[in-house]
Design goal:
With 450 residues, the chain is an alpha/beta fold. It is 57% helix and 9% strand. An 8-stranded mixed β-sheet has the order 3-2-4-1-5-6-7-8, sandwiched between helices. It is flat, with a radius of gyration of 25 Å. Bound molecules: guanosine-5'-diphosphate (GDP) and magnesium ion.
Length: 450
């Protein structure tokens, strides 16, 4: 995994909490010192290390823990929370939306990994069902054209470029019309050894023509905390919309680069974790910190802390559900929440008029395993599929199955469950209690555990 050293020291720090007898000021001080040491070793800027640990200490001393978890667990949760905050807060991923094509322009210094990233992003979006094109506008490096052309073959996307043309703007203009036919266009650009006025000018001219939806700054993780200066400079002079940090696989300084960028106001959107075309991850601070601290245990802990759901929340959710205007994401959330509440019957009781219905017991238990499968399948779906499962067809199901590691019949049955639940809601709205009971019975008998 990336940042192995930082991860190891943070994990052993947390272990100390677990094995201590109780939480007191001495333990908190020790914890804070350990975290400081770990972050400094990962090349996080001293001031930031101080800020993070100050927050952790303040909260640890002041806060009373939620009723569902212990003092120790709460301490771990605070560490997690504050690290997530420093990496930009609970994540919002890059959304592909608006008029097509969605254009992503990559900028950065020589060797930061722009061209490699162009290939990686192309593959990333292509495998999610988009029609992708990439274009080379780097006219500085003689080999840039061939390098990207080869990557386009690996990613199986269309490639545009002109080996002989020296003006990046002209290259883009030549293919502009053709590029309009794609869902996503990724534009590779030339770098320099340092951010110069001349580079800013070149990128400005190109951007005026391209009008990219996202202008991503590409940074190499091995520069550590110096990433802050670079991110700031590019942010101010080229107004980037986000950052990609590459080569996180090969350096212990990556923690510094990650945290430094997050505070410049240009959020980290992806990380590069290797030289191969598939070595790319969408950056989500929560997941990242979770893995850094040892996810398995942590997830269970955070889940427990969130457990305390109020009756009001439950009622709101039930109402939303009954409107029938929900997609796969909503349904998944409903089911997770029901699981959290113990059972659907509790939820039913809170919705006027539904409490008296006789619903088979098996139909009311949300299965853990099923939710897992939902989650895997949904991770492999495109945004359109999640929002409008009506478009699901054979090839899509096949793709989702191979992407998620589930069988085709698993994916089919999940979609079937979604459709059946829609029907069920329609019946509820129609008020036919008899029909509704019949439907519930049929679903629970037919393998639908809900
Ligand atoms: P550019 O000058 O910004 O276009 O950079 P390139 O894409 O040509 O990459 C420069 C070097 O960094 C190449 O040798 C790449 O293989 C390597 N590289 C790019 N991304 C990564 C990464 O995430 N991890 C590692 N280890 N190497 C990378
Ligand atoms: Mg390049």
């Amino acid at each position: 995994m990336v940042l192995e050293k930082l991860s190891d020291s943070l994990k052993s720090t947390l272990q100390k909490i677990t094995s201590s007898l109780f939480v007191d000021e001495k333990l908190i001080n020790e914890l804070v010192k350990d975290i400081q040491r770990a972050l400094l070793q990962a090349d996080v800027n001293v001031q930031m290390v101080f800020d993070i640990t100050k927050k952790i200490k303040e909260r640890a001393l002041k806060e009373t823990e939620p009723s569902t978890i212990s003092k120790k667990e709460n301490l771990i949760r605070i560490v997690y929370d504050e690290l997530v905050n420093f990496l930009g807060g609970p994540g919002s991923k890059m959304e592909i939306k608006g008029k097509k094509p969605f254009k992503i322009m990559l900028v950065g210094l020589f060797g930061s990994g722009k061209t490699t990233l162009t290939g990686k992003l192309a593959r990333f979006y292509k495998t999610r069902g988009n029609k992708v094109a990439i274009i080379q506008t780097d006219t500085w490096r003689p080999a840039a054209y061939e390098q990207l052309k080869q990557l386009s073959e690996k990613a199986n996307v269309d490639f545009f470029g002109d080996k002989k043309e020296k003006n990046p703007l002209k290259i883009y203009k030549t293919y502009k019309k053709e590029l309009d036919k794609y869902d996503i266009v990724i534009i590779d650009t030339a770098g320099r050894d340092a951010l110069s006025d001349e580079l800013i000018d070149e990128l400005d001219k190109l951007h005026k023509e391209v009008q990219a939806n996202e202008k991503l700054l590409v940074i190499s993780a091995d520069i550590g905390q110096a990433a802050e200066k670079q991110a700031k400079a590019f942010h101010e002079s080229c107004s980037v919309t986000g950052v990609v940090i590459n080569k996180l696989d090969g350096t212990a300084k990556g923690g510094g680069a990650l945290i430094a960028c997050s505070v410049t106001g240009a959020p980290v959107k992806f990380i590069g974790v290797g030289e191969k075309i598939a070595d790319l991850e969408e950056f989500k601070p929560e997941g990242f910190v979770g893995r850094l601290l040892g996810m398995g245990d942590l997830e269970a802990l955070l889940e427990k802390a969130r457990e305390a759901m109020t009756e009001e929340e439950a009622e709101d959710m039930g109402k939303k559900f009954l409107k029938g205007e929900y997609n796969l994401i909503d349904l998944y959330e409903q089911m997770s929440a029901m699981k959290k509440m113990g059972s659907l019957s509790k939820l039913m009781e809170m919705i006027p008029g539904l409490g008296q219905l006789k619903i088979p017991k098996e139909a009311l238990e949300v299965q853990e395993g099923m939710l897992e499968k939902w989650r895997f399948a949904m991770n492999s779906m495109t945004k359109e599929e999640l929002e409008d499962p009506g478009i699901m067809d054979g090839p899509r199901v096949q793709r989702i199955a191979s992407g998620s590691g589930l069988s085709v019949s698993d994916v089919r049955s999940l979609i079937k469950q979604y459709r059946q639940s829609k029907k069920l809601v329609k019946m509820m709205k129609g008020g036919g209690e008899k029909n509704m009971e019949k439907m519930m019975k049929r679903m629970s008998g037919g393998g639908m555990k809900f």
